[in-house]
Amino acid sequence: DPVENAKRLAAYKAVDNHVVDGIIGIGSGSTVVYAVERLAQRVKDEGLDVICVPSSFQAKQLIVENGLRLGDLEMHPELKVAIDGADEADHQLTLIKGGGGCLTQEKILASCAEQFIVIADYRKASKSLGEQWKKGVPIEVIPSSYRPVAQKIEKLLGGKSELRMSGSSKAGPVVTDNGNFILDWRFEGAHDWKEVETTLNMIPGVVENGLFVGMAKKAYFGMSDGSVMEQS
Ligand code: DER
After folding, report:
1. Beta bridge partners of 181
2. Banded model confidence at residue 165, pLDDT cuts 50, 70, 90
3. What is the pLDDT of residue 94?
4. Which of 34, 111, 217, 224 has its C-alpha lying 20 to 30 A from 13's C-alpha?
5. Which residues contact 40 (CB under 8 A, 6 or more apart)?
């Protein structure tokens, strides 16, 4: 499968290039699975001395299932590197994240890391946001506030906000690891993403948004021809 192979290539290259002994932030999603796989290999083969801090219940499971040492931000508030996926990245390495609903703890981890490294397959590399990722910007909101927040977003920024529903696995809306809801804001056109990020986070009821502006130090994109494109 070219997409899975592209994810693996990007993940392995990022772990090989950036992971040294120390505290490592582990993101969420399907690409980061390969990063944890590679990390576990290197711990086994090279005796790498790492403690892994998760960004979600899923990341925590990955760390535990791969026999890696588990840490948290309370014990380790400063990370050497954080590695995470993205739903889309533009040419300035502005990211949309949160497709997996873990954006809040992911952004916290990214903010605590000396280096925030993004790993993704070729489908995520765009010229501008919205080109390939059509599900909008995920926004974590306090459950009781989702309707007024949706209305305020549309008034301030246009587009449409939709409450993310669980679908088959559970009746009702998606509930995040932090016990909140997610609005997916389907934006239109180009925006000043730094301005949008601030506008969104100033709305009472918004916990965090999935725009990561100026945070990623480098991105590794696995390509369909087996190469890895690096962007920083
Ligand atoms: O939800 C998230 O933020 C994930 O990191 C997402 O952006 C990437 O998930 P994927 O690696 O499964 O595409």
Report:
1. 141
2. very high
3. 98
4. 111
5. 66, 67, 68
Residue appearing with tokens 């690096």: 230
Q: What are phi and psi of 32, to 5 degrees?
A: -65, -20
Give ligand 1 pocket residues (Cβ under 6 A): 27-31, 84-87, 97-100, 102-103, 106
Q: How far is the CA of 27 from the centre of ligand 1 (A)?
A: 8
CA distance 112 to 102: 16
- Cα 118 to ligand 1 centroid, rounded to whole Å: 10
Ligand 1 atom nearest residue 100's Cα:
1
Mean pLDDT value across residues 31-40: 98
CB of 90 closer than 8 Å to CB of 129: yes
Interface predicted TM-score (ipTM) over 0.90: yes
Best residue for ligand 1 mutational test, from 3, 7, 28 (most atoms within 8 Å of Cβ): 28
Paired strand residues for 161: 185
Using alpha carbons, select from 103, 125, 115 the residue that is nearest to residue 78: 115
185 forms bridges with which residues in the sheet? 137, 161
* Cβ count near 225 (within 10 Å): 8
Distances (CA, A) of 138 to 22, 29, 53, 102, 225: 31, 14, 23, 10, 31
Pocket mutation for ligand 1, best pick of 9, 36, 97, 124 (most atoms within 8 Å of C-beta): 97
- Structure token pair of residue 149: 């927040």
With cut-offs at 50, 70 and 90, classify the pLDDT of residue 1. Answer: very high
